Amino acid sequence: MSVSQNESRRQIVDRTKRYFGCGFIRRDLSDKTVKWECRSIDQIHSIILPHFHLYPLITLKNEDVKSLREVVKMMSNNEHLTRAGLIEIVDIVKEMNPDGKRRIALADILATLR
Fold first, then answer.
1. With CB atoms counted within 10 Å of each terminal CB, which end of the chain scores lower, N or C?
2. d(CA 106, CA 32)
3. Are residues 57 and 30 in the same domain?
4. Are residues 10 and 23 in the same domain?
5. Residue 108: how many CA atoms within 13 Å on its side-chain side?
């Protein structure tokens, strides 16, 4: 889970970190932004997803939140530790943020798993 802004709008990133009380802030040199990130499954499950349950987004990103909720649930059930579970998670994730950059193409991950 992340929020990124240009340096001139860093206050949004700082406020996001303060609001949720978790995660960390880092500079992303690849796109010259500042990012707040939370990578803890426990914190995403217990802090961030409940917020978006109470205050759903009114944009298409709400579908990504629903997908994230499903992935976190699967990971909490250790389904990511099986080949079938991991394939299902990658299939869910490939629909999320389709315009975003990824270090490894999800199609390549799926080809390796299958």
1. C
2. 24
3. no
4. yes
5. 4
Q: Are 32 and 48 contained in the same domain?
A: no
Q: Which domain holds residue 106?
A: 40-114
Residue whose token pair is 């939370």: 38
DSSP letter for each residue of the chain: -EEEEEGGGHHHHHHHHHHHT--EEEEETTTTEEEEE---HHHIIIIIHHHHHHS--SSTHHHHHHHHHHHHHHHHTTGGGSHHHHHHHHHHHTTSSTTS--SS-HHHHHHHH-
Domain count, the chain: 2
pTM of the entire predicted model: 0.82
Q: In angstroms, rounded to a whole number, what is the distance separating the alpha carbons of residues 44 and 51?
A: 10
35 and 60 inside one domain: no
